[in-house]
Amino acid sequence: MSEARVSDDAPPRLLPGRVLWASAGVASAVLGAGLGELAAGALTLHQGPVVGAREAAAAALPAQFVIRDGIDIVPVVTGAPLVVLIGLLLVVLAAVAGVGAARGWRRPLVVGVVVLALGGIAVLLRPEPSLLELAPVVAGTLGFALGLVPLAGLLRRLGVAVDAGRVDAGRADGGRAAGTPPVPAATRRAFIGAATGVALAGVVAAVAGEVVGRGRRAVEQGRQLLRLTMVTPPTEPAGVGVGVEGVAPWTTPAEEFYRVDQAVVVPTIAAEDWTLRIHGEVEREVVVTYEELIEMTVREQWATLVGLRYEVGGDQVGNAWWSGVPTSALLARAGVLTGADAVVQTGADGWRCVTSTQVLGDPGRRALLAFAMNGEALPLEHGFPARTVVPGLYGGVSACKWVVEWEVTRLEAVADDFSDRPLQAPVRIGARIDVPEDGTTLPPGSVTVGGVAWAPPIGVGAVEVAVDDDGWQLADLGVAREHDAWAQWSATLDLEPGEHRVRVRARDRVGTQQEPEPLDDGAGATGLHEVTLTVDADADDEG
Ligand SMILES: Nc1nc2c(c(=O)[nH]1)N[C@H]1C(S)=C(S)[C@@H](COP(=O)(O)O)O[C@H]1N2
Ligand SMILES: [Mo]
């Protein structure tokens, strides 16, 4: 490892130049670890690099060494062996990278890539990996670079060579080798100051990450302790399923429910701290607390939510059982003044949307201020403590999560502020083929195709499928009693050998057909979902 000339008598002394370069690497690694932890905390991921290592260690330890305090796992043995091992490995790698930086960027780059890859693999090996969890690893690697580049630059500017101050024990005089002068004290001090600053920044970032992450854990714990006795668990209406494997489950589990928001940091508001302020053009300003909300008359209903940016065949659509208070009841408390026709809703993340009082104020439109999803308090990601759900309007114009403010106003007064989105965008009728997947090769015989279709707030009337340019045939529909929820559908097709295009379309209960052309007008997806299936006599039955 050491590149010092080998001597027969004694190994070379610790070399100040080399030590300074190695320290640059280690200080940068501290900054990287800190930024990784901050990224994890800010993204409110369950674990950052440090916590992750701690939990890995906890998992590896015998049970008696581990206590579980609610949702956190704390190894009793501090300095658990695995953490120490990982820490040591990182320190060694960082030192190697630091020393390598004296000669150019190749070695630190290689170390960075190795750490990135190892971290990435560790994340992907977790039970349910998500790409977002890579963020701390990436932040950590970037943080490392962020520290090393200026520190190496400083050392270079100060003229510190790796072998500066080297004592060549092999030399007869035992003294300093020519051309490798000692590092002057002032230079050393300047560098130590800078390196300490970098490392301290890392510690501050790590502490900040812990604080932010702990805030989330506290709110999550409070959420789990809520006893919402007025909320009933979801019971799927009989017959809604078509029993075809691979079709999206009729009830979308909260963990699988699509998520769209601009919140880099998921707002964490404790239930007891939450209020909704209703003000503006109202008879009286109203501030509703969580306790007051859940004590109002609760309504529960199935509703399918669709993203404004749902793409044909995509996954920005989900169906859940929502419990909440009709928005009409809340607006009635405040008393909407005549002429006021819009509500600007604001979420705790600062996101806003405008929704008409006609919709929010009409009990028949079934809009909810929801506090539970699928029988449990809203998950943090889906708007805890409360969010709006409006059947038949796209999420982006109505379904404000973490909602804290309703300003009753006039559409004309605020329309310009929302020019990025269509106003009042009603959900367009849609249908999706879930199975078989596009590009599947099948053996000859009959094939079952299936998927979901939606037409809130009217309800799905019929779903049809077409093979190539043959005519449309009716698909079987799960019982679609619900107006606001999607319907599962399936159809059995007999396909000739060769390649086929299978399309689906839906219509609502009053006969309105799904828009077949892709309009791309920003008001929600249009066009029909299609898949290409190949029937091949040699295909095995697995597909
Ligand atoms: N506060 C807040 N609410 C929001 C958003 C947001 O970014 N912030 N995104 C909206 C959009 S575009 C959609 S499609 C829905 C998605 O809700 P979900 O993430 O629970 O599926 O939330 C809406 N409500
Ligand atoms: Mo959306």
- Mean pLDDT value: 87
Instruction: Give the helix level as a range of percent.
Output: 25-40%
Strands, total number: 21
Work out the helix count: 10
Q: Could you name the ranges where pLDDT drops below 50 across 5 or more consecutive residues?
A: 1-8, 63-79
Structural class comes to alpha+beta
Q: What would the principal axes of the Cα set say about the shape?
A: globular
Number of domains: 3
Q: Which molecules are bound in this entry?
A: the ligand Nc1nc2c(c(=O)[nH]1)N[C@H]1C(S)=C(S)[C@@H](COP(=O)(O)O)O[C@H]1N2, molybdenum atom
Strand order of the largest sheet: 4-3-12-7-8
Q: Report the C-alpha radius of gyration, rounded.
A: 31 Å
Instruction: Please summarize the sheet with the most strands.
Output: 5 strands, mixed
Question: Per DSSP, what share of the residues sits in E-state strands of 2 or more residues?
Answer: 15-25%
Instruction: State the end-to-end CA separation.
Output: 53 Å
Transmembrane segments: 20-45, 73-99, 105-125, 137-155, 190-213
Protein name: Molybdopterin-dependent oxidoreductase
Region (Disordered): 507-543
InterPro entries: Ig_E-set, OxRdtase_Mopterin-bd_dom, OxRdtase_Mopterin-bd_sf
